[in-house]
Design goal:
mainly alpha
Length: 470
């Protein structure tokens, strides 16, 4: 089911209404059923996989607690089964193709047809969420959950199921269990997030995608200037797309009184590559930091080992994003950025306005360079695009076909709408004034008008989110 549709809004309305009408002790049943309906809406067979991952990690966590002396076996079992299913569904075709290409280098003519296994939506997200729970139980950072229904809800909670944020057990589970009441405050904050997310996704990202796709799908027809411009547009497209999803997820959950973590913090205002990864896809960065980087030794074993650990983490991060060499190269580039930053002399953040914005611009250009590998249709396409950017410019004439009054007006409208959303009051007026419901009615009217305006651009439904493929 797409977040960006009127059908989802109707679904969310029913879920929230029934959720608050039911007694607290039955709400987990309703939310679990609603989450499974949401996930299996387009392909019910996908429910089998998520239920299997849920059951395996649930039982392994209980085994870790009950059989202390053999707890490593249960940890290994959960990792093998969870990552094994992820490998089969996401990486098996890639692995087979890589082995075949490698064999061709040694003169083999071996060929195997691709299996074309369907990639379950969100598998990378809920697998990592389940694994973090089992590892935390193994390290005695949390106690295993005895109630299977609540644990299943933790894995499948619909707002963040298919594209995060990757929540931690000790943060989300208490909120799922707490008794909650409907409040105008939560409703207002929630729809404020949802409206912001729809504008980012539908009005900004989906509109920029038209130009970005035109260029990256026809690189031979454009010069370096046009390709560089499209790469810059893609940086804002993917931000609007992914952070827009996160805003809709956070808003949908907030209406029910459950707070999801912030997954973005103005990433393009970062002053260094490391600072960028503290602001972009925060939940994934923390996951790799806690469950890969630190176990590898982190920065505790000297500069050389730290640099190696950073590079390995970003290689894995690139592979997590997709079974394709272009993602591996994208991750490796970011790994090299962080290695260079680690080896440079440490300095305090500049207070000078010019120096700070110079670092922000440099960081954005580095990140945008790496985005070319992320967006290109293939690794050779990325190399071709970069070659043209550095060697084939026809002045500003190549931009003429891309820059139009419609683009300028749309961008101005988007930034104005986002500014209005940002500077809408962050809290409801004081209850003592007795006007909170009048304020809420006006704000809700603004929400409906804004949302209808956003969805009208796509005929009532936006395109699939970019991170749904991961």
């Amino acid at each position: 089911m797409s977040f960006v549709s009127f059908f989802y809004l109707a679904y969310l309305f029913v879920v929230v209404l029934v959720h608050f009408l039911l007694p607290h002790k039955f709400r987990w049943v309703w939310l679990l059923a609603a989450s499974y309906f949401f996930y299996g809406f387009n392909n019910p067979w996908l429910l089998f996989l998520i239920i299997c991952v849920t059951l395996v990690t649930y039982l392994c966590a209980l085994g870790i607690k009950k059989f202390e002396r053999k707890k490593i076996l249960f940890l290994v079992l959960s990792i093998v089964i969870s990552l094994g299913s992820l490998f089969v569904f996401k990486y098996l075709d890639f692995a087979i193709d890589s082995v075949i290409k490698l064999s061709h280098l040694f003169g083999s003519s071996w060929e195997v047809d691709a299996l074309n296994i369907i990639l379950p939506v969100g598998i990378s997200f809920y697998t990592f969420q389940a694994l973090s729970y089992v590892v935390d139980v193994y390290k005695d950072k949390t106690q295993p959950e005895a109630h299977f229904g609540y644990y299943a809800l933790f894995i499948s909670y619909f707002p963040q199921l298919v594209a995060g944020p990757i929540e931690r057990f000790d943060r989300l589970m208490p909120q799922l269990k707490n008794e909650r009441s409907f409040t105008a405050e939560n409703f207002y904050i929630g729809f404020r997030y949802i409206l912001t997310g729809y504008i980012k996704k539908v009005v900004l990202a989906d509109f920029l995608a038209i130009t970005v796709n035109k260029v990256f799908n026809n690189l031979g027809q454009y010069d370096g200037g046009a390709i560089a411009f499209a790469a810059i547009l893609f940086a804002f497209q993917i931000y609007g797309d992914f952070s827009g999803y996160s805003d809709i997820a956070k808003g949908s959950s907030k209406i029910m009184g459950i707070d999801l973590m912030e997954n973005f913090d103005a990433p393009y205002l970062a002053t260094s590559p490391r600072n960028f990864w503290r602001r972009w896809h925060i939940s994934l960065s923390r996951w790799f930091g806690d469950y890969v980087y630190i176990p590898l030794g982190g920065n505790r074993k000297g500069k050389a080992r730290q640099c190696l650990n950073l590079f390995l983490v970003f290689l894995l991060s690139g592979l997590w994003h997709g079974a394709n060499l272009k993602f591996v190269v994208w991750g490796a580039i970011h790994g090299l950025f962080l290695i260079v930053e680690t080896l440079l002399p440490k300095h305090q953040s500049p207070q000078n306005f010019f120096a700070k914005w110079s670092l922000r611009l440099l960081t954005f250009l580095l990140v945008d360079f790496a985005w070319i590998f992320f967006r290109a249709n293939s690794l050779p396409d990325a190399g071709y695009a970069i070659t043209k950017i550095f060697a084939s410019w026809n002045g500003l004439s190549g931009l003429g076909a891309l820059i139009s009054p419609a683009l300028a007006l749309r961008l101005c409208g988007v930034f104005l709408a986002l500014a209005l959303c940002r500077y809408m009051p962050t809290v409801m007026p004081s209850a003592e004034r007795g006007n909170e419901w009048a304020f809420l009615s006006i704000a809700f009217g603004v929400f409906i008008v804004g949302l209808s305006w956003a969805l009208t651009y796509q005929g009532g439904e936006g395109s699939a989110f970019i991170y749904f493929q991961f």
